[in-house]
Amino acid sequence: MSSEVAMNEGRLEITHMLSVPRAEAFTWWSKKEKIQRWSGCADAVGCEIEMDFRVGGAFTQTMDISGRGKFTFHGVYDEIVEPERIVWRAFFGPVTTRVVVEFSEMGDRTRVVLKQTGFPDERSLKTIGQGTEESLATLDTLLAPMATNGK
Fold first, then answer.
1. Residue 123 CB: number of other CB atoms within 10 A?
2. Which of 1, 30, 56, 80 to pair with 113, CA 20 to 30 A apart?
3. CATH classification at residue 127
4. 47: which strand partners?
5. 41 lies in which domain range?
6. Residue 151: is its pLDDT beyond 50?
7. Mean pLDDT value of segment 95-111
């Protein structure tokens, strides 16, 4: 499924439909074993995540990007309302962004709206936006058999 993407003034907003119910969709954002399977740009050949999924808990994500090496970023969870919302701060070196992900039930599907703010320039906004879109495409591929099997 494609995403609706808006980027402007240091702000990224992506609206994306997932082919599973909200409770299931939420687990793909809250369980490290699942996130490792889909998070990362199209050139990522691996993703390792350490996470403490609770308010005040932290995470570290390291992607191995083909031809470029490893890229690591960190974050801290500020709000978790299962299965509705996750809010965290992401630290990309000296840059800190705020990410809000909201999950809305749409029958047997889920609308995910991701809003990320605090980008210092257009380049970082576009890079993270593209990587996020590519990650969601990978997630769609993983969820497709669940939708067709009715699981």
1. 9
2. 56
3. 3.30.530.20
4. 63
5. 3-149
6. no
7. 96
Separation in Å, CA 51 to CA 54, 65, 81, 106: 9, 20, 17, 29
DSSP letter for 68, please.
T
Helix (H) or strand (E) holding 64: strand 58-65
Residue count of the chain, please give it.
151
Task: Name the token pair of 112.
Answer: 């995910």
Q: Buried b / exposed e across 33-42, counting CB within 10 Å, b at 16+?
A: ebbbebbbbe
Q: Is 32 exposed, middle or buried (0-12, 13-18, 19+ CB in 10 A)?
A: middle
CA dist 53 and 77 (Å) reads 7
Q: Which residue has the tokens 């500020």?
A: 78
DSSP state letter for 21: -
